[in-house]
Amino acid sequence: MFRRHKSSAAEHKKDFAVHGAALPGPQNDMRSFFNLSQLVLSAGQLRSPPILKHSKITYFEVEILDAQSKRQICVVDKVPPSSSLLDVKHKFHKACPQWNPSRIGLRLERNGPYLKDSVSIQSLAVSSIITLYFTDLGQQVSWTTRVAPNQILALVLPEIYGLPFRLVLTGIYAEEESTESFRHPVVHLACFCHCLHYVRHLLETLFVHKISGGHTPLKNMIKGCAFYWGFTSWIAYYVNHPRYTPPSFGNRQVIFAALAFLMCEAGNHFINVALVQQNHSGNKASFPSPTYNPFTWLFTLVSCPNYTYEIGSWISFTVMTQTLPVGIFAFLMAIQMSLWAQKKHRLYLKKYNMGALRKTAMIPFIF
């Protein structure tokens, strides 16, 4: 028994020696210290901050060609997607200083419409390269510079009713005719209505319409001034002529036409205000709807009631004065505004889907 127990104890010591579980020595202490230091270092190691992945910005390249010859004029590169067409025009001006941004006309197609300055470049892009066609629009003036002289001088020229056509009649009419001092009341009423019309236009241009940032060719300004100034002088000459005859139906015709003129002027003003208020509110998804103001109820019948009221004013003025120059002027204005109304009506049909409403462009149920 004793011998067997001893041999088992010897075997137990041998197993401990084989597995390295003997009494600790200097070598084991060094190994433990090394393992502990490695553990501390691995636990305390600082992690590198994660690398931020920036989103890639795709820049566009705008190739500008001459609309007539298709010759490349320049290439505007590194255009951000958030840029507008006006930004491209400014970069184009830096590359070609002879063309001011206001006289640069850019189109997607050679015979297509000119693009607005507010158009986003990203909305035009089909690929990273955008091709635009350039047209020199010529010398430009601001809309205020164009409209104001038309309205101001057309407003001042009726005062020629009171200067050359009244005070200096001897130099305009025959001497025996200019001696007649009596003027029918419709002459004074016509001067008042004519001035009222252009005062309204001028005030709306300055304070209602947002057109001061736009530009128009200088030749259009010259044509507009010649048209308005010429007809105003012609109308003033006839209405203030000493041999001017009043309307056929007398005061009843004059009063009826004057009331219709004032109603059309008021309606035109309220329609313009309603259109501007819709633009300011940002609600461009629906066609302007009538309000509690009765003058705006014409929106239910026509697409361009402002043109309807404008033509109504000049027809009333023609009936009130019963003169040929006013009738010719009203006829030409009706033709021009009918063209504008048709163009806007087609745009409204596409934009607001008004086909089911069966509206006409300018004249209710007719045109």
Automatic annotation (TrEMBL):
Record-annotated TECR-like N-terminal domain positions: 60-136
Membrane-traversing stretches: 323-341
Q: Where is the signal peptide?
A: none
Per UniProt, what is the membrane topology?
Multi-pass membrane protein
GO terms for cellular component:
endoplasmic reticulum; membrane
Against Pfam families, the record matches this protein to: Steroid_dh, TECR_N
Primary localisation category? endoplasmic reticulum
**What Gene3D superfamilies is this protein classified in?**
Phosphatidylinositol 3-kinase Catalytic Subunit, Chain A, domain 1
Per the record, the GO terms for biological process are:
very long-chain fatty acid biosynthetic process
Which GO molecular function terms does the record list? oxidoreductase activity, acting on the CH-CH group of donors
- Domain named 3-oxo-5-alpha-steroid 4-dehydrogenase C-terminal is located at 216-367
Q: Where in the cell is it found?
A: Endoplasmic reticulum; Membrane
Under InterPro entries, the record lists: 3-oxo-5_a-steroid_4-DH_C (IPR001104), SRD5A/TECR (IPR039357), TECR-like_N (IPR049127), TECRL_Ubl (IPR047822)
* UniProt entry keywords in alphabetical sequence: Endoplasmic reticulum, Membrane, Oxidoreductase, Transmembrane, Transmembrane helix
**Similarity annotation:** Belongs to the steroid 5-alpha reductase family.
Q: What is this protein called?
A: Trans-2,3-enoyl-CoA reductase-like
